[in-house]
Design a protein that fits this description.
CATH architecture: Sandwich
Number of strands: 19
Distance between the termini: 75 Å
CATH topology: Immunoglobulin-like
Helix content: under 10%
Order of helices and strands: HEEEEEEEEEEEEEEEEEEE
Number of helices: 1
Protein name: Cyclodehydratase
Organism: Streptomyces spongiicola
Keywords: Signal
Strand content: over 45%
Shape: elongated
Structural class: mainly beta
Number of domains: 1
Length: 213
C-alpha cells in the first residue's frame, strides 16, 4: 500500500529534521579554540529546526607588530567528521560549505589564500573578499562517515596605527547573517532531500589578537 501524500510529507519533514538536529560535525580533536555554533536547518517540508554544532579552530598570529608593519595570520579548522547515519537515517553527504571571517580592523588586507585541506571532495576550494568579509567556499561533496579538514586560511596584513589591536574572529550574528553554511543531502523514503543549514558562533570569541606598537 502506497503512503498517502500527507504521510509522505510528514515523514520527509520529520526525518530531515531528526537527521539535521543530530548532524554534529564534531571536531576530531580539541587542541585549539572550540567554537559553539548555533545552527538552523531548513528542510524542504516542515518547520526549521535548531541544533548546536562544535567546530575547533587553531589560530596563529604574532603577539605584537609595529605600526605599518607586516604580519601573517592563519586560521585553520581542526579535522571534522560527517556522521554516516543518524537514528537510522543515512546522511549521504554535505556540500557547498561556506565559512566567513571579517577583514580585521586596524589592518589592510594584502592577500588571502588557502593551503592544505583533505577529504573535501572533488570540488576546488576558493577564497574571495566581499563586503568586508573573507569568504572560503568548499564545493564538496563530502560523503557521510568521512573525516575531512578544511583548507587553512592565510592572511597577509599590514598593521594600522598603534594603540588598537588587530583581532580575528569568525563572522556571523544570526541565521540571517551566518558565518557558516552548508547543505546536507539526506535520502528519505524514495527521494534525496537537500537541507540548507546556517550557523553562527554563539558566543563569538576572538581567535587571535595582535597588539600594534
Amino acid at each position: 500500500m502506497r503512503p498517502s501524500s500527507a504521510h509522505l510529507r510528514l515523514s520527509m519533514a520529520g526525518a530531515a529534521a531528526l537527521a539535521l538536529m543530530c548532524l554534529a560535525i564534531s571536531p576530531a580533536s580539541a587542541a585549539g579554540t572550540t567554537l559553539s555554533m548555533d545552527c538552523q536547518a531548513t528542510p524542504p517540508i516542515g518547520s526549521a529546526q535548531q541544533f548546536d554544532l562544535s567546530a575547533g579552530v587553531d589560530a596563529t598570529a604574532p603577539d605584537t607588530v609595529a605600526a605599518g608593519g607586516s604580519l601573517s595570520v592563519r586560521l585553520a579548522t581542526e579535522p571534522m567528521t560527517v556522521p554516516g547515519s543518524v537514528s537510522g537515517y543515512t546522511v549521504k553527504s554535505i556540500k557547498n560549505i561556506t565559512l566567513k571571517a571579517p577583514v580585521p580592523s586596524n589592518a589592510t588586507l594584502n592577500g588571502a589564500r588557502l593551503t592544505g585541506g583533505s577529504g573535501i571532495g572533488s570540488g576546488t576550494p576558493t577564497v574571495r573578499v566581499s563586503g568586508g568579509e573573507i569568504v572560503m567556499s568548499v564545493p564538496g561533496p563530502i560523503g557521510g562517515g568521512k573525516t575531512f579538514t578544511l583548507p587553512a586560511l592565510d592572511l597577509d596584513l599590514t598593521a594600522g596605527t598603534s594603540g588598537s589591536a588587530i583581532e580575528t574572529r569568525l563572522s556571523g550574528t544570526g541565521y540571517g547573517s551566518p558565518g557558516l553554511t552548508f547543505t546536507a543531502s539526506v535520502p528519505i523514503l524514495f527521494v534525496t532531500v537537500s537541507v540548507p543549514t546556517s550557523c553562527y558562533p554563539s558566543p563569538n570569541p576572538v581567535l587571535t589578537s595582535t597588539a600594534v606598537d
